[in-house]
Specification:
By secondary structure, the protein is mainly beta. The chain has helices spanning about 1-15, 405-410, and strands at about 20-35, 50-65, 65-80, 95-105, 110-115, 135-145, 150-155, 170, 175, 190-200, 205-215, 220-225, 225-230, 230-245, 250-260, 265-280, 285-295, 305, 335-350, 350-360, 375-385, 390-400, 420-425, 430-435. The protein has an 18-stranded antiparallel barrel. A two-stranded antiparallel sheet has the order 8-9.
């Protein structure tokens, strides 16, 4: 008993001597959308759809000198998807994030748990903030940080259920090894290892290096004791990102290469981008010009090789037009993409802005005799700040697609008008904040 009391007193003394912070925030984000061409090309004669989706979150953050922890309890739903007198909320509620970061000393730390992973311009790794459900990873990250250098080494291993001690599962009365786990080839990997290094070389320039190895589950093709087994294949993605600023001028660029395997096919693909911005004045705040190429394949997987780049876990909605016709679950192992784009930012009021953008799309590689032009898209966004924790954003997008591309994607004759409009309200108030300073030493 004396030892127990002594331990409690010692623990309380340590806590009292450590600065602590606790913050609780909420997020309510309803979004109305009208879709007549979003991700999928709308067929001619089909009626557009309208709905309201909502993200509702409770965010809890804790920090002291040794440990930071974060919990994100999230519900994503569509208005009307549950009865008014439902006994439960279905399966829309989840723990979206649950991680802890432990300081190891001299710039080292480790961050473990369910978390968003986001780097650089979010082309390869992104939090996917636009989607109501976001993208999170179950991973562990070893981190090192100085005033100019940030190094992250990440690791993940996924199973879809608990397994027996020998790694197998019971079948026909016996234990066999089955390489169980997710088998969706684009996003849900079996295992992952990555290294991200960012260095601030000067006040004007910072650069990053990224290497990822993703191991994916093949669809089972062999059988042991009557149970399908599945092999594994790995793809690697590596490249660099740079960010340069000088006065009113800004320049960012990236270059990535993918290699390895996709199922039984050999992979060799690349991505490159260059984007420039210039800060103009008070009303026309900024103009930007950019271009990106993602390599493509003119014959799919017919020759056993894939030359089409896929940007994996990025915030793909941020790139290649807001209607998401490319790389948001679609356009994999196809003709690739060349996107030449321009945008502007206008200040329309004390706390509002208008952002128009235009994209010109063409295929990176097409079969002989096929037109490479895919279409042109216009995105219009208006942002209005309500107060320090609330804003409303209104958007409208319309694409003018090449008929061959549109009909092929739609699986029939596509509608001449491919448009999408939305209104999103975001309210994110702080509900509670507490900070305990370091206790003064006894005199």
């Amino acid at each position: 008993m004396k030892k127990l009391l002594l331990g409690i007193i010692t623990g309380v003394s340590v806590v009292n001597a450590t600065a602590q912070e606790l913050s609780i925030d909420a997020m309510i984000r309803p979004r109305f959308e009208y879709r007549n061409g979003f991700q999928d090309v709308a067929l001619d004669g089909a009626e557009g759809s309208a709905f309201v989706s909502q993200r509702s979150s409770l965010l809890v953050g804790y920090k002291d000198s040794k440990i930071s922890a974060f919990l994100d309890f999230q519900d994503v739903s569509v208005w009307g998807d549950r009865p008014q007198l439902a006994r439960d909320g279905g399966d829309t509620f989840r723990v979206n994030q649950a991680w802890a970061e432990i300081q190891l000393g001299k710039g080292w730390s480790t961050k473990v748990g369910r978390q968003t992973i986001s780097y650089d311009d979010q082309r390869i790794f992104g939090a996917l903030g636009w989607a109501q459900q976001q993208r999170t990873h179950d991973a562990g990250i070893l981190r090192y940080k100085t005033s100019s250098l940030k190094l992250d080494a990440g690791f993940a291993f996924n199973q879809n259920a608990e397994r027996n001690a020998d790694g197998g599962q019971t079948a026909n009365g016996g234990n066999i090894f089955v390489a169980s786990g997710p088998a969706v080839p684009l996003f849900q990997y079996k295992a992952m290892q990555y290294l991200h290094v960012n260095n601030k070389f000067s006040d004007n320039f910072s650069g990053s290096f990224l290497f990822i190895n993703n191991t994916f589950q093949d669809v089972g093709s062999e059988s042991v004791a009557g149970v399908d087994t599945a092999g594994l294949n790995s793809r690697q993605t590596t490249g660099v990102y740079g960010d340069y600023k000088q006065g009113k001028f800004g320049l960012t660029g990236s270059a990535y290469y993918q290699f390895g395997e996709v199922g039984s096919n050999e992979l060799s693909a690349f991505q490159a981008s260059l984007n420039g911005t210039y800060k103009v004045g008070e009303t026309l705040k900024l103009i930007g010009l950019g271009a990106e190429i993602l390599s493509g394949d003119d014959n799919g997987t017919d020759d056993g090789e894939i030359d089409s780049f896929f940007p994996l876990f990025g915030t793909n909605h941020k790139f290649n037009g807001y209607q998401d016709f490319f790389f948001v679950g679609r356009h994999a192992n196809t003709v690739g993409l060349i996107d030449v784009n321009a945008k502007a930012v206008f200040k329309t009021g004390k706390s509002s802005s208008f952002i128009p953008a235009i994209h010109y799309f063409s295929a990176a590689k097409t079969p002989s005799g096929v037109d490479s032009y895919l279409g042109t898209a216009i995105d219009l966004v208006f942002k209005q700040k309500i107060n320090s924790y609330a804003n409303v954003i209104v958007g409208y997008s319309q694409s003018f697609l090449d008929s061959d591309f549109a009909d092929g994607r739609a699986g029939g004759e596509a509608d001449d008008i491919q448009n999408w409009g939305w209104v999103m309200l975001t309210i994110k108030p702080n509900l509670f904040k507490w900070k305990k300073p370091v206790a003064e030493p006894a005199k």
